[in-house]
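Limitations

Structures in this collection are predictions, not experimental determinations, and the ligand pose is part of the prediction. Treat each record accordingly. The example that follows, with MTE as the small molecule, is included so readers can see exactly what is and is not provided: the inputs are given verbatim, and the output is the predicted complex.
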Amino acid sequence: MALSRRTFIAACALAPLGCMQARAAAGAGLDDPAQPVLAVSRNGTRLAALSRAELAAMPQARIATRTPWNDTAVVYEGPLLADLLARFGDGHGELRLLALNDYMVTADAALLTEAGAILAVKQDGTFLTMSRKGPVFVMFPFDDDPRLQSQPYYSRAVWQLVEIELL
Ligand SMILES: Nc1nc2c(c(=O)[nH]1)N[C@H]1C(S)=C(S)[C@@H](COP(=O)(O)O)O[C@H]1N2
Ligand SMILES: [Mo]
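Predicted complex:
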């Protein structure tokens, strides 16, 4: 995997030990389920850096759906966004979602949680690789509810998610 500037920055943001270690970790790959890949922050303070192994150890939700990104229906698994936010006493305010490719979008937390958003870490039973839009993919049950098949939700279906800011 080429170590892009953005990957390095994301790894730095997540690094418990600093940027030199982050460079090594990013080189080892964000595809490693044991590596912290998802930061949760508030007011510039990092509250947590979660690995996919930790996210997969939470109660899992399962969404089988078609998406604009796949030709056929795919099964995504991961914790409910609502469950993760509850760990930080949150779930009511605004969120900012940041991805590896510099994509950034804000949303009312309730819009996402009421739609049943999950933090998908697996696709068809296998941890998402970066090449399959991992490490984390915000996913909605698009096929279950036609109202979700619209821009407010597609634009919040953030792939390669690396940070959730609680605004
Ligand atoms: N990481 C990331 N996630 C993203 C985007 C993006 O550019 N980067 N685009 C969003 C938008 S605006 C839409 S409509 C959908 C589909 O965009 P895509 O066709 O570029 O994947 O993905 C969303 N998730
Ligand atoms: Mo979009």
